[in-house]
Write a structure and sequence with these properties.
Blueprint lengths: L1 H16 L3 H15 L2 H29 L4 E7 L1 E23 L5 E6 L6 E2 L4 E5 L2 H29 L5 H26 L2 E3 L4 E3 L9 E2 L7 E16 L3 H7 L6 E5 L8 E8 L9 E8 L11 E18 L4 E3 L2 E7 L5 E5 L1 E6 L3 E6 L6 E5 L10 E5 L22
Parallel strand pairs: 1-20
Antiparallel strand pairs: 1-19, 2-9, 2-13, 3-5, 3-8, 4-7, 5-6, 7-9, 9-12, 10-11, 10-13, 11-12, 13-18, 14-15, 15-16, 15-19, 17-18
Helix pairs in contact: 4-5
Length: 410
């Protein structure tokens, strides 16, 4: 019994000294927490955040790499305006009038009244031929005419009294008329001594000087050419004849003349003549226009550029010519959509127009926007950074400063 009691007492003491299991675990956790410092947790958080940032940055770079880059491009808006339907040709100018001044009476040139190469007006005095012989003939004719008029008057009085024969009166009347005709002829020859310009124009280099004997059989004294207006001569190909015949009688047909260097404003003239036959061998048809030339900027035999305008296209669709590109499938343009991405659009281009524009017959609509420069770096669906297009100045058929476009397209 004592032994059992001792053993039981020992167990009772052990039970009293042992701690509950939950309290033991808590203590162990505290001891573990005391072993890991707080800065380690902070370091772990920082490292985890950095790794997460790098992963996100890498993924963003991958997404950006898969997207095409934004390309810079100049853009312009599609516009509409009235433009001409035309044929471009090369021509030459010709004097509207050419007169070779010839002496009508024989005599010695007494004076010259012009400067070679100057402009003259109709009626300006050019040369004076010695008028004295013709003045004497005129005076003699006038004296004879006066005498014949007196004789005729006397015969009329006698005839009224019926004291002369009718034949005498008829003879006196014929003599009076003949002498009057002689006066008029002498007056014409006398006037021919004072050679005057028959037209307005520019006089050439004289062929004779003062003191030379001239007459109807001698060479021309000088040549005068009328320069305002002036003819514009050109040819058109026989392949264009169907188109020309279609519009030839229309109200908008005109001939526009300008110089290749753009030094003058293009000048609108009227179609004066078109030949009725094709030239053998060349396959062309001659045509001529009448062009205003008040400043004498166009000279005879000068080469010029000619725009033969046949009609006016109303509300034509226009874009800068650089916007039209050529591929194996044909002409196309890049159209910029509202989100600045581009769409490849096939088009049918027409004629080039003023300001480096070109007509688009179909493929784009007014107020759409097209890419003008930078197309080589683009593909359908690419995104662009649009910039307004500023065209370069260039000589056009409109030829001069007025035809050198400096318009900015937006």
């Amino acid at each position: 019994m004592k032994a059992n009691t001792a053993v039981g007492h020992h167990k009772t003491l052990d039970h009293g000294l042992s701690e509950p299991p939950m309290r033991s675990q808590t203590k162990r956790a505290r001891r573990a927490n005391q072993r890991i410092p707080k800065w380690a947790y902070l370091l772990f958080i920082l490292l985890a955040g950095f790794v997460t940032y790098r992963i996100l940055q890498y993924r963003a770079a991958e997404v950006k790499a898969t997207q095409p880059p934004v390309r810079p491009a100049s853009i312009a808006r599609v516009i509409t305006k009235d433009v001409p339907l035309y044929l471009d040709e090369i021509g030459t100018c010709a004097a509207y009038e050419t007169v070779q001044v010839q002496a009508q009476v024989s005599g010695v040139i007494m004076a010259r009244h012009f400067q070679d190469g100057s402009d003259v007006k109709k009626g300006d005095l050019l040369f004076t031929i010695d008028p004295r012989p013709y003045q004497a003939v005129l005076d003699q004719a006038k004296a004879q005419a006066a005498l014949d008029q007196v004789t005729l008057k006397r015969q009329e009085d006698l005839r009224a009294r019926k004291v002369i024969a009718q034949q005498d009166y008829d003879t006196a009347l014929a003599n009076a008329q003949k002498s009057q005709a002689a006066v008029e002829a002498a007056q014409v020859n006398f006037d021919y001594c004072f050679i005057k310009s028959p037209i307005n124009g520019r006089i050439g280099l004289r062929n004779v000087d003062v003191g030379n004997l001239v007459g109807p059989s001698t060479s021309p004294l000088v040549t005068i050419q009328g320069l305002d207006p002036i003819y514009t001569d050109f040819t058109v190909a026989q392949n264009d004849l169907p188109l020309i015949r279609k519009y030839l009688r229309g109200p908008n047909v005109k001939v526009e003349t300008y110089l290749a260097d753009g030094s003058i404003t293009p000048r609108d003239g009227d179609l004066y003549f078109i030949d009725h036959a094709v030239q053998p061998g060349s396959g062309t048809v001659k045509a001529r226009g009448v062009t205003p030339n008040p400043d004498r900027a166009l000279w005879p035999s000068e080469f010029v550029l000619v725009r033969f305008i046949l009609d006016t296209l109303k509300d034509a669709t226009l874009v800068p010519s650089q916007a039209v590109q050529i591929s194996q499938a044909g002409p196309f343009v890049f159209v910029v959509k509202s989100d600045n991405t581009v769409e490849l659009r096939p088009v049918t281009p027409g004629q080039r127009q003023q300001g480096d524009l070109i007509v688009i017959e179909n493929g784009v609509k007014p107020d759409e926007t097209v890419v003008v420069t930078g197309q080589l770096a683009l593909s359908p669906g690419a995104k662009v950074a649009p910039q307004p297009y500023a065209p370069q100045t260039a000589v056009t058929p409109e030829g001069s400063a007025a035809s050198k476009s400096a318009t900015s397209y937006e």
